[in-house]
Amino acid sequence: xxxxxxxxxxxxxxxxxxxxxxxxxxxxxxxxxxxxxxxxxxxxxxxxxxxxxxxxxxxxxxxxxxxxxxxxxxxxxxxxxxxxxxxxxxxxxxxxxxxxxxxxxxxxx
Length: 109
Prior knowledge:
Elements: H1 6-31, E1 49-53, E2 65-69, H2 73-80, E3 101-103, E4 106-108
Antiparallel strand pairs: 1-2, 3-4
C-alpha cells in the first residue's frame, strides 16, 4: 500500500494541471494547422513584404502572424481556405507585428 501525505498529493495535482494545460495548447496549435511555408527569393524594398496569418486562427485569437514576401501571400491565403468552421481558437492576443519591412533581403516584422 502506498502512503501519500497532503503535500505529495497537492504536488501531484499541480504537476497534472500543468501537463493538462501544456497539452491543451499543443493540441490547439496542431488543430490550427500552423506550419511555416518556406518561400524562395528575397525582398528588395519594404513594399515587397506583407503580414500574413499563418494558421486557421488569427493572431487576436491565439494564432501566429509572419512577415513574408508579397509573392508568397497567396499560398497562405490558400491554406486558410482549408480551415474548418469548427476550428477552436484560444482567446489569447498574440499580435506582435505592427509592420513588415525588408532587411538584408528578408521580410522582418
